[in-house]
Amino acid sequence: MANSSSVSEFLLLAFADTRELQLLHFALFLGIYLAALLGNGLILTAIACDHRLHTPMYFFLLNLALLDLGYISTTLPKAMANFFWDTRAISYEGCAAQILFSLFLVVAEYSLLTVMAYDRYVAICKPLHYGSLLGSRTCAQMAAAAWGSGFLNAVLHTANTFSLPLCQGNAVDQFFCEIPQILKLSCSDAYLREAGLVVFSVSVLFGCSVFIVISYIQIFRVVLWIPSEQGRHKAFSTCLPHLAVVSLMVSTGMFAYLKPPSISSPYLDLVVAVLDSVVPPAVNPLIYSMRNQELRDAVRTLVEYTILQCIRL
C-alpha cells in the first residue's frame, strides 16, 4: 500500500488538450488575475492614502481586499503556469501549501465578513455608541481574530489531510489542490478522520451565517423606520455591497461543495470551481465601489494623481 511519503507530486486536471485552448485559458485567467490585482490594489492604496477613509468600515474593507488578493494568488498563478508550459504537475509541498493558504484565506474572509456585519449593525442600530464599541484597538482585535480563526482551521485540516495514506494514485480532478480531491486519493477510512474537523468547521461557518442574518434583520428593522428617503438610501448603500459579497461567496461555495451527486460532472465541477475561487476576488472590488461614493472619489483621486505623475516623468 502506497502512502503519502511515496507521492512526490500531484497531477492537476487539464482544462483542454489542444495547445490553442490552453493558451486561450491562460489569457482569460491572466485577464481575470490582473483585474483582481488592479481592483483590490486600488482599494488598498486608496484606503491607506486617504485619511477620510480611516474608519472601521474601510479598515475591514482593506483587510477584505488583502484576503481576496491572497486567495486568488494561491491558485491562479500555478494554473496559468500550467496552461502556458503545457504541464499538469504540482509538487507535494506546493499542493499542501495551496490547501493551507486557500483554506486559511477563505475561512478568514468569511469570519471578516461576519465582523463587517457587526460593524454595519452598530453603525445603523447604535450610532451613538459606534466610536466606543468600534475603537481602533477593538477593530484590530476583531480583524486579528478573523485571520487567526482562518489560520487555525487551515492548519488542522491540512495536517490531518496530509497525514493520511494515499492509495489511489496522484491525479487530482481539479485545477488546484483541495481537500475533497485529496481525500479521494486516500484510503477508505479517510473520511472518518476528517469528519470531526468538517463538523467543527461547518458549525463555525453556520454560526457566522446565523450572526449575519440576525444582524441584518435588526438593521432592516431600523432602516425601515428612518423617516427620510435619503437616510434610508444612505443606510442601504453601505449594507448592500456587503450583502452582495456575502451572497456571492455563500452561493458559489454551497453549489461547489453541496450540490447533489446526480448533477455532478467533471466539466460542471470545473466551472463551479472557477466561479467559487476566481470570480469573487475579482468582482468584490467592483461590488464595493459601485454604491460607495467616498470610495469611488478616493480611487478616482488616486488614479488622477498617478496619471499626472506618469505624465511629469
From TrEMBL:
Membrane protein topology class: Multi-pass membrane protein
Cell compartment(s), UniProt: Cell membrane
Record has Transmembrane helix as a keyword: yes
GO cellular component: plasma membrane
Gene Ontology molecular-function annotations: G protein-coupled receptor activity; olfactory receptor activity
Record's function text: Odorant receptor.
Family: Belongs to the G-protein coupled receptor 1 family.
Protein name listed in UniProt: Olfactory receptor
